[in-house]
Amino acid sequence: MTAQRKSAKLQLRRSISEQLRDSTSKAWDLLWRNVRERRLAELRLSLSTVCQKRRRDQRKTREICRELQLSPRSNVITEMSAS
To answer: Do 70 and 76 meet the contact criterion of CB atoms below 8 Å apart?
Structure first.
């Protein structure tokens, strides 16, 4: 009986140890997943900001080109390029 009690205690101790290890592992996984998601969200935000700035710059460039082609000053540019 004493041996059975010892083995039962040992199994219980192992079970608690395994549960603790599993829960610790799950906690670390959750923590790193949250860190990863936050970092990816920051990257997405910065990437979308860069894309928005690029689109805005492209629009401004197109607008400037249109203005230069439509304005009377465009003659100055063509005269300068001809010389």
So the answer is: no
